[in-house]
């Protein structure tokens, strides 16, 4: 008898191929994908009645009339329900649009639906082809933990692929490599400090005049959308609230209004940061720990680092370092780009809060990133960031947060840091960890199409690894 598999959010040609190959070995009785790829899956006979659309799940369109007939019990996985509530900020038009009571209500709706569906479908294995970062995915993980149903999270980066369990811990699935054994053009360029073309393009700063033109263009679209799209549903919208405790699809016109407001906010926050950030010309005279931020709403930040946030991380670090050591915080180059999922993002008050800390400064985004790494005592960064790879290349010991994947010779996790002495010596708790966590399959960037992709050979290879892994359970 074939195992029942759930495949959550395959939304690329590579993952379409993967789903097709997995369906030859297993019974895929649920696929969740976005509107575009959902239609492509539904066009295949074997998947037609097994597809749910991500946006419709998020805004509760599938189960408006569903009563809350299941409530989490005392032994429920409340941590992941809490994280689900945290990352619902992705679905807000503006900061704090969804009240605690509304978030709580939505989560209970999802809990009731997904518990019932899991008991009906009886999945024996669940695959997340990326770090889950839709709030309902965390509800699903919570129920999977209750039911003791295995799942795997695949995280493919530009330099490697790793596999994670439901707690976002890297797992050794067998036949993996040490990081130092990996070789590919992307890692080679980082080691040799060569510029990577797609990184340059992605992080390229826009001119002030371009930002103003973009805003002007968005504002001009408002009357046009009012006339032609006032009632048309925006199929890709992540905004879910209609009125108090009423949720559903968002109109294209409303989406445009919200995006214009958020674009204006992003513009002014960027000007504030540029005007108030510290400019350094000589980093060699400063004793500091370098803290580069991740772009907000990236899954590397939440939920991979949840329930922590930057203020918690910073206060924890400050409690463990000498008073004569500064922390230099640098904003991510893409933070002030307007993207649909970038919504409200960090606000001016966040940077004001940073200014209130003693020995903490946020610095200009023009400050040379590599020089900041080289001249620092230590670097504090996400383990799945490019900064982590650059620290390894520059032989700079770093303190990581989030997913723990690298060996102790390269880094220590923030939770294991005890203190840094006045003589810069670091004390920490040792943690046992498998070394063979990395796989050579990786994603690349197609500059002409402006999209990420995985080569055919790599996707075939990673699919075989998944098939072998599922058979083990």
Write the layout of secondary structure elements.
Blueprint: E1 4-8, H1 13-25, E2 27-33, H2 35-42, E3 51-53, H3 54-58, H4 78-86, H5 100-121, E4 125-128, H6 135-147, E5 151-156, E6 161-164, H7 185-191, H8 197-202, H9 208-229, E7 241-243, E8 246-247, H10 252-276, E9 288-292, H11 310-318, E10 326-330, H12 348-356, E11 360-363, H13 369-375, E12 378-382, H14 386-393, E13 398-401, E14 411-413, E15 417-420, E16 426-428, E17 443-446, E18 451-454, H15 456-472
Parallel strand pairs: 1-2, 1-4, 2-3, 4-5, 9-10, 9-12, 10-11, 12-13, 13-14
Antiparallel strand pairs: 5-6, 7-8, 15-16, 17-18
Put simply, the count of helices is 15
Query: How many domains would you count in the coordinates?
Result: 3
Low-confidence stretches: none
Beta-strand level of the residues, as a percent range? 15-25%
The shape, in one word, is: globular
Structural class: alpha/beta
Q: What level of helicity do the residues show?
A: 25-40%
Please tally the β strands and state the result: 18
Side-by-side strand order of the widest sheet: 3-2-1-4-5-6
Radius of gyration: 23 Å
Our measurement of the CA-to-CA distance between the termini, rounded to an integer number of angstroms, reads: 14 Å
- The overall pLDDT average reads 89
Tell me about the largest β-sheet: 6 strands, mixed
């Amino acid at each position: 008898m074939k195992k029942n598999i759930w495949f959550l959010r395959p939304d690329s040609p590579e993952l379409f191929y993967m789903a097709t190959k997995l369906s030859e070995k297993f019974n895929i009785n649920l696929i969740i994908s976005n509107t575009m790829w959902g239609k492509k899956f539904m066009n295949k006979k074997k998947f037609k009645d097994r597809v749910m659309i991500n946006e419709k799940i998020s805004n509760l369109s599938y189960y408006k009339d569903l009563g809350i007939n299941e409530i989490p019990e005392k032994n429920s996985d409340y941590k992941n329900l809490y994280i689900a509530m945290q990352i619902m900020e992705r679905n807000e038009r503006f900061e704090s649009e969804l009240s605690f009571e509304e978030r709580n209500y939505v989560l209970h709706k999802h809990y009731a639906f997904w518990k019932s569906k899991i008991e009906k479908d009886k999945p024996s294995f669940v695959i997340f082809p990326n770090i889950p970062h839709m709030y309902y995915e965390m509800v699903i993980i919570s129920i999977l933990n209750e039911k003791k149903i295995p799942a795997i999270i695949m995280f493919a980066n530009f330099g490697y692929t790793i596999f994670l369990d439901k707690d976002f811990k890297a797992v050794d699935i067998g036949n993996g490599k040490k990081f130092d054994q990996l070789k590919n053009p992307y890692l080679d360029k980082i080691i040799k400090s060569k510029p990577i073309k797609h990184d340059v393009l992605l992080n390229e700063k826009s001119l002030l005049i371009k930002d103003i033109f973009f805003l002007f263009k968005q504002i001009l679209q408002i009357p046009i959308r009012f006339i032609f799209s006032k009632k048309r549903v925006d199929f890709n919208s992540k905004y879910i609230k209609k009125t108090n405790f009423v949720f559903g699809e968002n109109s294209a016109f409303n989406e445009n209004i919200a995006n214009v407001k958020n674009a204006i906010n992003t513009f002014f926050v960027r000007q504030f940061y540029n005007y108030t950030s510290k400019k350094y010309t000589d980093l060699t005279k400063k004793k500091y720990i370098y803290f580069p931020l991740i772009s907000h709403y990236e899954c590397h930040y939440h939920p991979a680092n949840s329930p922590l946030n930057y203020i918690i991380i910073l206060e924890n670090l400050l409690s463990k370092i000498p008073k004569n050591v500064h922390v230099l915080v640098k904003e991510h180059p893409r933070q002030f780009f307007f993207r649909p999922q970038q919504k409200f993002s960090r606000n001016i008050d966040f940077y004001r809060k940073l200014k209130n800390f003693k020995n903490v400064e946020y610095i200009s985004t023009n400050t040379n990133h590599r020089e900041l790494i080289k001249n620092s005592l230590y670097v504090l960064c996400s383990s799945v960031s490019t900064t982590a790879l650059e620290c390894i290349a520059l032989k700079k010991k770093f303190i990581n947060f989030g997913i723990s994947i690298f060996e102790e010779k390269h880094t220590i996790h923030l939770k294991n840091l005890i203190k840094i002495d006045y003589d810069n010596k670091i004390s920490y708790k040792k943690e046992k960890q498998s070394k063979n966590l990395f796989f050579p399959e990786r994603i690349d960037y197609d500059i002409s199409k402006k999209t990420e992709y995985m080569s055919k050979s790599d996707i075939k290879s990673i699919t075989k690894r998944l098939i072998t892994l599922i058979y083990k359970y």
